[in-house]
Structure formats: structure tokens, C-alpha cells
Amino acid sequence: MTSKTLKVLSAGAVKSGVAQVCKDFERATGAQVSVEFKTAPELRKSVEAGEPADVIVAPPAAMDEFQKLGRIDTGSRGFIGRSRMGVVVHARAASPDVSDAAAFRRALAAASAVVHNKASSGIYSAKLLEKLGLAKELGARVVVVDSGSAVMKTVAEKEPGAIGLAQISEVMVMIDKGCAVKLVAPLPDEIQNETSYEAAAAAASRAPDAAKRLAASLASDAAKKIFAATGIS
Questions:
Q1: Helices (H), ranges, the chain
Q2: Could you tell me which of 97, 119, 129, 225 has the fewest CB atoms within 10 Å of its CB?
């Protein structure tokens, strides 16, 4: 990595938008940008361990932790957008009724498998299954995978009947890649979970001015249009 290369550590749910904004930044400035995407737990571990980076993209709760540890430039924090969660099935499957919480519960109870990940959306999914009284009922039909992309891959590999719970932004990325899944709908409003994301320059960046400019670009009005097209609004 050259001295002109900026390293971004980012949560995976905003992958498509972050990648596009970073490419636009490269074209506009001539700088090179390297982006590494991680699940929220992995991102926390990397930043808390002091992994070198110039810009960090993460949920506000994680940013608060990083700020307390002195890992980010507080003044550079900027809001990117929010991701909502959705229901995913095999591309050949009929779309179940998930119009409200009761219908959603019936759909999951009838599923051959319910798939979620270990990241922030997966943590919420596990709590939601408990709240709806489905965790014990589903038992071994609950499949927990490492990442958002793995949710879609798992649903695609199973026969129609499996249901995946994932962030809509990640669903759209995988569909664009040809994964054999489809988005049924967002979670019903009464049980919806929104995850916000922010960008900030790393306090230990080797190129602080450029890092601040990139963080500002990720949180700009122009970037918000890009993120909106990927499911982050």
C-alpha cells in the first residue's frame, strides 16, 4: 500500500454505496482507496485492537466506543444513512404474507429454515424470534451464518421454503450478483429494525487531511443519493 492509499474499514451492510463513493473519490482526487468490509463484531475488534486505517464506517454505537478509545477524529463524524431489514426467499419460492407481525410470525413458523447472521442484524433477528415465541418452536430450523451475504447464499442453496432475514442493502447486492433469492418485503413496521451508519476519519490516519475529505465525501448529499440507490436511506 503506497503512502497515497487510504484504507477504509467498513461495515458490510453499506458495501455497495461505500465502494461507489470511494471510486468516485479516487477519480476526483487521484488518491487510491482500499476498502475492507467486516461484520459489526469483526469491525469492533479490529478498531479496538488498533488495526491501521484512515476512515471507519460503522453504526453510531460502535462509533461512540471508538470515540471513547480515541480511535476516531470526533469532528469528522458524519451520518451516511439507515438500513432496514427485509425478508428473503428462494427466487423460485412463492412470496409469503409478511404484511404485519402476525402474518410474519405465521410465515416463519411454516418455513423449512429461518436464516440469519451473527452481525448486528442477526443479533436483532435472534431477539425477534425470542420476542415472537418462535425460537423454541423453530429449534434446529434456525440457521445462523457468519455474514449477510451468507444468509442469501444459504437461502439460495436450500429448496424453496427457507426464509432469510437480512439488511435490504445486502439483499440487493447479492441479487445484483445473481444470487437466486428475492426480496419479499421489508419487515413489518411494528417489528422493523433500522441500523444507522456513520463515517469518520481515524485518529491515527497517516494522511489525516485526505482521510477527513474522504469521510466528508461519504457523508455528503451526493453520496446519500448513491446510498439511497443501494437501499440505504
A1: 15-29, 40-48, 60-68, 101-109, 120-131, 135-138, 148-157, 168-176, 208-218, 221-228
A2: 225
Query: For 50, how many CA atoms within 13 A lie in the half-sphere containing its CB?
Result: 1
What's the rounded mean pLDDT across residues 194-212? 96
Count the Cβ atoms, other than its own, within 10 Å of residue 110.
10
Residue 175 near residue 127, CB atoms below 8 Å: no
Give the start-to-end residue ranges of the domains of the chain: 5-81+196-228, 83-191
Q: Do domains 5-81+196-228 and 83-191 have the same CATH topology?
A: yes
Q: Mention the CATH class of domain 83-191.
A: alpha beta
What is the per-residue pLDDT across 107-151, written as a single tens digit (0 to 9) for each?
999 999 999 999 888 999 999 999 999 999 999 999 999 989 999
122 to each of 12, 32, 67, 76, 169, how far by Cα in Å? 13, 33, 25, 29, 14
Distance of alpha carbon 176 from alpha carbon 180, whole angstroms: 10
Q: Are 232 and 197 in contact (CB under 8 A)?
A: yes
- The three-state DSSP-derived secondary structure of 36-100 is EEECHHHHHHHHHCCCCCCEEEECHHHHHHHHHCCCECHHHCEEEEEEEEEEEEECCCCCCCCCC
The fold of the 5-81+196-228 domain, in CATH, is D-Maltodextrin-Binding Protein; domain 2 (3.40.190)
